[in-house]
Amino acid sequence: MAPSTARAARVAAPVVVGVAGLAVWQLLVSVVGVSEYLLPSPAEIWTELRENSAAIREATWITGGNSLAGLVVGAVLGVVLAAVAAWARWVDGMLAPVVAGVAVVPIVALAPVLNSMFGADNQYGRRAIAALAAFVPVFLNTLRGLRQTTPLHRDLMRSYAASGWQTFRRLTLPSAAPYVLTGVRVASSLAVISALVAEYFGGPRGGLGAFISTSAATSAYARAWAYVVAAIVLGLVAFVVAALLEQTVQRRLPAGALR
Q1: Which long-range CB contacts under 8 A does 101-110 form with residues at least 24 apart?
Q2: What percent of the chain has pLDDT over 90?
Q3: Entry pTM
Q4: Which domains are seen in the chain, by residue range?
């Protein structure tokens, strides 16, 4: 199969599956008679998307801002602490139980606590939740990447009289970069999901999670699903942007960069 044909097939396959899924969905509601309470029809959801497009866009911007802020803070913190842990084993030993604890913290329990701590008028609690979710995969992947260089490679750099900075720039950083970017790609989706959950459990009004909760509570099920669709699109955009960033940086890495 030609490369162009293979690419077209990769794009067409999910589109076909999606269209078929929507057709079955509409059939279940229109013909089988599935209750709106259980599953609104795609047509009703599309109507809500058009009629409430301004509110949905505003809520998406709020959730996107919370997710992005959390992703940036969590990623920076993860990279910095991973670098320290890779440099000093005793720091790694201290951080390991902390990271393990953060990884298993239930968001549904922590979100109301942080929302109450930071107050009902700001977004800091939601961003903190997104940062915690983003921190773990970035930290773990970065730490693994920083440890990919072997003693043989480091001895080779020393034989060339390379300084510490040159060793880091030419050897350690190219080796770790793919792992860091993989962590960011995973964290991008987790940040969106965590921000949505945090919005669902209180805090200031606004954001997709809050409107999903409000719409479902008032029996506006099609509207709630419209906000869910917006959340799905936001998550996909975050994932695709992170994946494109990963591919762009990897293409610029030295040809001999370790994987």
Answers
A1: 102/132, 102/135, 102/136, 103/136, 105/132, 107/133, 107/194, 107/197, 107/198, 108/197, 108/201
A2: 22
A3: 0.81
A4: 52-252 (1.10.3720.10)
